[in-house]
Amino acid sequence: MQIGYKLVAEGFGPQELVRQAVRAEQAGFDFVEMSDHFHPWVEAQGHSPFVWSVLSAIAAKTSTLGLATGVTCPSVRYHPAIIAQASATLALLSEGRFTLGVGAGERLNEHIVGRGFPGVHERHAMFRESLEIIRLLWQGGYQNYDGTYLKLEDARIFDLPDALPVMAVAVSGPDSVSLATELGDGLFAVEPDSALVDGYRTAGGTGPLYCEAPLAWAATEEAAVDAAHETSAWSVTGWKVMAELPNPVNFEAAAATVRKEDIREQFACGPDVERHLEVIGQFTDAGFDHVALMNAGPDPDGFFEFFEKELRPRLTSA
């Protein structure tokens, strides 16, 4: 199992995210993962820097740390040709340490270019076309593509790494698992659902299995619950809500009914290492082998110290 650290791009500015990534490497994390957002989920988070710039800076300041987007939508706000080029460049800059996590996107980030955000069936069809275009461009040479939703004209990526990036496809059910098996090199999920892992392996998928474990470290359970409730209550609302709302103010309204008890149920809150192991264990028991720890607590450096002294020794000895 590889243990990752989720860089909360909605909660910190770019310089601080780079600092945290360097600290994560020192603390013994295997990789960092960072969302590709234009907006934060809620105004209280207050940040959302450009992921490709931040990860490039991290690549220059680290030597062993894996890097991943968690995840990029390559079909609305971006054209997939741009993502094919960006990921190839980052793979070169990181000397093969980059994983491209991709998904069908959220209205929160994609509507900003004024193209609208299509319904679920259309956006999944666009997502398939975008992955086909990325794969085509990664073959090298000049390429063309004439899809229903997306097109490519005489495009070539001149700087391709010898070993292409791993492309992990975000999944939520059988259709997306099938897509991950066909066009991806791995999968990415946010729920400890063993059916996703089993479906992928049964279909012949052999790649890495990425997930995010929701934690909130603080010196006391109450401080952890308060911090997670302020910045991350939106995460309890479920993916159908998270994919459709357009702005932070809408997420604040949607999260208004989330109770602190709901946070305690979903997150490992406070300093109790056993509770953190319990939440992480839901994902490892489901079969995931790349677990990114998503700390919604108020003290990143306190969490790093907790990870080094208490959590990592338990995880690596399991």
UniProtKB/TrEMBL annotation:
<dbReference type="GO" id="GO:0016705">
    <property type="term" value="F:oxidoreductase activity, acting on paired donors, with incorporation or reduction of molecular oxygen"/>
</dbReference>
<feature type="domain" description="Luciferase-like">
    <location>
        <begin position="7"/>
        <end position="290"/>
    </location>
</feature>
<dbReference type="InterPro" id="IPR036661">
    <property type="entry name" value="Luciferase-like_sf"/>
</dbReference>
<dbReference type="InterPro" id="IPR011251">
    <property type="entry name" value="Luciferase-like_dom"/>
</dbReference>
<dbReference type="Pfam" id="PF00296">
    <property type="entry name" value="Bac_luciferase"/>
</dbReference>
<keyword id="KW-0560">Oxidoreductase</keyword>
<dbReference type="InterPro" id="IPR050564">
    <property type="entry name" value="F420-G6PD/mer"/>
</dbReference>
<protein>
    <submittedName>
        <fullName>TIGR03557 family F420-dependent LLM class oxidoreductase</fullName>
        <ecNumber>1.-.-.-</ecNumber>
    </submittedName>
</protein>
<dbReference type="InterPro" id="IPR019945">
    <property type="entry name" value="F420_G6P_DH-rel"/>
</dbReference>
